[in-house]
Amino acid sequence: MPVEHYENFPVASWLLPQALRTPVEAIYAFARSADDFADEGDRPDAERLALLDGYARNLDRIARRERPADPVFSRLHDAIVAHDLPIGLFHDLLDAFRQDVTRKRYATFDELMDYCRRSADPVGRLLLALFRKDDPANLRDSDAICSSLQLINHWQDVAVDWAKGRVYLPQEDLRRWGVEESQVAEGRVDGAWRDLMRFECQRARAMMRSGAPLGTRLPGRMGLEIRAISAGGLRILDRIEAVEGDVFRHRPVLKAGDWARILWKALFWRPAPVRMAAP
Asked: Which of 10, 71, 87, 187 is the most buried (most CB within 10 A)?
């Protein structure tokens, strides 16, 4: 599963090949610190956006083969140059973080997926580039896994996001299931809310399973890493469904006992049929 506070960053460092840990840490430091600008503390929005624009300027310097003095960007420069990483993917992440500052609602699931394309998918694509495994099939499946992880994070953090003024549940889904935003504010769980959350979990699970073949194609520890990520995400969905969508009083998290289960599933992964949720 994603590490520590930056939930979109799928890396279990103990599974990564030693040679790739330094560039992965450089990518993580960039993503974590930029996400903090957009999400943490009580800065005014204008200051958040200015900080993110400063990060974009440092990326432009790296594109010109300049090595910034800032430790975050000096390490990132080395990783990008050594592994020929696409600068555009880092700009995509910054664009998503800016969007978190300026946009609080999503009308449709397609709009939310466009956000996931920039907020989550670049991380998996960067890891595949590091592994030299970024062929079209792998990129497609990585995008499915990363977007699913982003959705799972949104569903487990409905209350957390509401406190920040954000609702990631698509407005079209709220209307379809007859759920008002006032219900989110109240933390009220009824039959309509349970149906909505069941649908969203099923959709995220189908997306995760559609990308899961990536974990069987990648060799060795790389494949095991992906299988562990997928198993962890699916375990969070199980926990959301176990509390019938009541993420207000029972925020689902992975506990110590889950890790043995996740590792077992990663070691003995068997593809599951993909069934898309129907409204």
From this structure: 10
